[in-house]
Amino acid sequence: MSDDPRQAAERYRLDRALRDDGLLEPASDERPARGSTAAERVAFVETAIQQAIRRGEFDDLPGAGKPLPDLGAAHDPDWWIRRKIETEQLTGLGPPALTLRVEHAEMAQRLDALTREPEVREAVEDFNRRVVEARRQLQGGPPVVTPTVDVEAEVRAWGERRRAREAAVAVAPARRRRWFGRGR
């Protein structure tokens, strides 16, 4: 162990906080000395854990006695990243080849949410620009096979879908809702 005063002060604060919280027994002969070996420190920590188990401090923890979810036979070093993405329902993460492929499949839905033709044109041009940029990248990952989209054809298709929706709304009879009473 070094005689660095900053480390000694931090060790003192940690021991004091643990004693105040009741997690560490008051100073006794069982505590490893300052110049103790790694084996002595391991033995001390193991003894402290066993004492805490006997006192029941680890009883009734959430998930106690249950298997860990999603433990597969294959070793995946990024399991925690995948789980975080699933639980937080994050999108737009991953290599550009995959994200662009998903965006291409959902393009009609995304464009239908837009209300003006210049916005649609700008969104399609932006998509094409990102596809070309992804093809130029020399990073690893799957190859970019997503095709670019014809801007004029997408704008026409968007206009046709919009007119069809407006016609369907105009044909459907308007239902009136009565505010007072059930029927008169």
Secondary-structure class: mainly alpha
Over all CA atoms, what is the radius of gyration? 32 Å
The percent range for strand residues is under 5%
Helix content: 55-70%
Report the strand count.
0
Mean pLDDT across all amino acids: 81
The main pleated sheet reads as:
none
Low-confidence stretches: none
Summed up, the domain count is: 2
- Overall geometry: elongated
Oligomeric state of shown chains: single chain
C-alpha termini separation: 91 Å
Structure description:
The protein is built from seven helices and no strands. The chain has about 180 residues and is mainly alpha-helical. The chain folds into two domains: about 5-55; about 80-170, no CATH class. The longest helix has 21 residues, at about 150-170.
Short description:
This protein is an all-alpha fold. The protein has helices spanning 5-21, 38-55, 79-88, 96-105, 107-112, 117-136, 151-171. Helix 4 (96-105) runs antiparallel to helix 6 (117-136) and helix 6 (117-136) packs antiparallel against helix 7 (151-171).
List the keywords.
2 domains, elongated, 184 residues, 55% helix, mainly alpha
Ordered list of secondary-structure elements with their pairings:
Layout: H1 5-21, H2 38-55, H3 79-88, H4 96-105, H5 107-112, H6 117-136, H7 151-171
